[in-house]
Design goal:
Blueprint lengths: L3 E4 L5 E4 L4 H28 L6 H13 L1 H8 L5 H6 L1 E5 L7 H9 L1 H6 L4 H10 L5 H6 L1 E5 L30 H17 L2 H15 L7 H16 L2
Antiparallel strand pairs: 1-2, 3-4
Helix pairs in contact: 1-2, 3-5, 9-10, 9-11, 10-11
Length: 236
């Protein structure tokens, strides 16, 4: 599944690491297994009780928790279910922020079409065609499912990818050292992944103060330039 970028109201680009279809299917299998285990155990317990329990009680004890499973878990566990937690994925809004109850409710209601009535066929096709990790419920709710699993790449190292014709702008970056830049890069990358716009803004302001420069770029571009400039000057 390809990643996609969104632009926030603060003009900060955020790369969403969209959960793969395999991860979502595995999460579904884990959650389904938990539901089945619960129903089996609850049935045995109810069968061991006296016959005074009404038929309605059986339906409530056996059916209601399974029926509300996804809505309850995602609402109270930051977009996760036990299955999603196992594969390290969760539901977020398209701008990376935490969904509200109404968003969870909409995607839960549309599970009937996406998954229940079509055995997941509509969900799989929609996710594959959409390219943003969205089934019908996600499209209607304005949400998606992202992977929180870290990928080891150049973003996890001190090195920055710099073009051969790159022109640096801030020679003041040499007042920093490798540990400073690595910390800046770690904070910056984490903030972008999690959509924490305020952290990027604060980081850019702190760098302006530390380097004694005036930033005329977007905060996200300024922080990236500082990282690249440091790599440029330290390679000389």
């Amino acid at each position: 599944m390809d990643n996609f970028q969104i632009e926030t109201a603060q003009n900060i680009s955020i790369e969403q690491n969209v959960a793969g279809i395999g991860e979502r299917i595995l999460a579904f299998i884990v959650d389904l297994a938990i539901i089945v285990i619960y129903i089996v155990i609850a049935t045995l317990i109810m069968a061991g009780l006296d016959n005074s329990s009404s038929e309605m009680m059986y339906y409530l004890v056996l059916g209601l928790p399974a029926f509300l499973y996804y809505l309850i878990w995602e609402t109270f566990w930051d977009g996760r279910t036990p299955g999603k937690a196992v594969v390290n994925i969760k539901v977020v809004r398209k701008d990376g922020s935490r969904p509200q109850f109404s968003h969870y409710l909409i995607r839960w209601l549309l599970r009937i079409i996406d998954i229940s009535l079509t055995s997941g066929g509509v969900a799989v096709v929609t996710i594959l065609l959409n390219g943003k990790g969205q089934r019908l419920g996600d499209i209607a709710a304005g949400t998606t499912v992202i992977s929180e699993r870290k990928k080891l790449n150049i973003d996890n190292t001190l090195v920055a990818d710099i073009p051969e014709d790159y022109t640096p702008k801030y020679p003041q970056v040499t007042v920093l050292d490798d540990m400073d830049i690595q910390e800046i890069k770690n904070i910056f990358q984490k903030a972008r992944r999690q959509g924490q716009h305020h952290i990027i803004l604060t980081l850019s302001e702190k760098l302006c103060e530390l380097l004694d420069v005036k930033n005329e770029e977007r905060p996200v571009d300024f922080v990236q330039r500082v990282i690249k400039d440091y790599n440029y000057y330290t390679r000389q």
